[in-house]
Amino acid sequence: MRIGTVGNTADIISRHKFSIRKKYGQNFLADISMLEKIVSAAAIGPEDKVLEIGPGLGAMTQLLAEQAKRVTAVEIDKELIPILKETLSEYDNVNIINGDIMKQELKELCGGDKYKVVANLPYYITTPIVMKLLEENAGIESITIMIQKEVAQRMQTGPGSKDYGALSLAVQYYAKPVYVCTVPPECFIPRPGVDSAVVRLDVYDTPPVSAEDPELMFKLIRAAFNQRRKTLANAISGEGSLNISREAVQEALKSLGMDELIRGEKLTLEEFARLSDVLEQVYK
User: Fold this and answer.
1) For the whole model, what pTM was predicted?
2) What separation in angstroms does the CA of 198 have from each of 33, 77, 130?
3) Which CATH number is 214-283 given?
């Protein structure tokens, strides 16, 4: 039975006397056309291995299992495991794991192979999960996720936009974000209070910019956007853990042909990389 309809979703919830849990940010997608659009955007083929985070009732898992070689579905809510075993009983290529994705070793989950991630992520933990997936460098080819629309917009925006920030730069360092579609609240049970969006992150084999010390680059980025109303020189020098003077930042900016009073929101990822390379010697 296809789960991805309002009627079938409500029936399963009722039959199992399942109580939707706010602490897990549960909003079940109950629109088959939208589910199909997500799976299509993920470009799943018969040789692909898929990691699904938060399968919920198994609506998208069913579609993934019909396209992929293998699906590993990690669900944090133990009350959903019996439901998943029922809804996915006819698929022998699905492995259901009850656990917290933030505590999982990604390479172990997929046996060290290349794989694609598909997920309907809870709003409250979207950024930590996305950054874990990107930073662990565990063989991920792409990440197709449904998240809050506002966060999806931040991921793909560039310098000068009010949505541009540390998340934009971090995502764009590791992957190319592709905005797939907007998902209205009425597609879910229960309905969220805001629009959602589907975005695919095509993970780079090699980052598009080269920084001598990527860790320092991201420290500079975080400092810049923690105090985005300040000039970049003041924001960086105000971050005590960096121990870099305002004069040193201004000198570095000047050497790169940039305005000494520029704000961080005006710099591209490439410019942050160049700035970190210049400031590396001062930092050490």
Assistant:
1) 0.93
2) 13, 23, 13
3) 1.10.8.100
Q: Which tens digits make up the pLDDT trace of 139-150?
A: 999 999 999 999
Chosen CATH of 6-203 out of 3.40.50.150, 2.40.50.140, 1.10.357.10, 3.30.1390.10? 3.40.50.150
Give the 3-state secondary structure of residue 194: coil
The pLDDT, as a whole number, for residue 110 is 80
Condensed to tens digits (0 to 9), the pLDDT of residues 177-213 reads 999 999 999 999 999 999 999 999 999 999 999 999 9
Please give the distance of CA 86 from its chain centroid, rounded to a whole number.
Answer: 29
For CATH 1.10.8.100, the residue range(s) in the chain are 214-283
> Which of helix, strand or coil describes residue 261?
coil
Contacts of residue 85, defined as CB under 8 A and 6 or more positions apart, other chains included, come to: 96
8 Å CB contact between 147 and 197:
yes
Half-sphere exposure (Cβ direction) of 108: Cα atoms closer than 13 Å: 6
Cβ atoms of 142 and 43 within 8 Å: the answer is: yes
CB 52 within 8 A of CB 73: yes
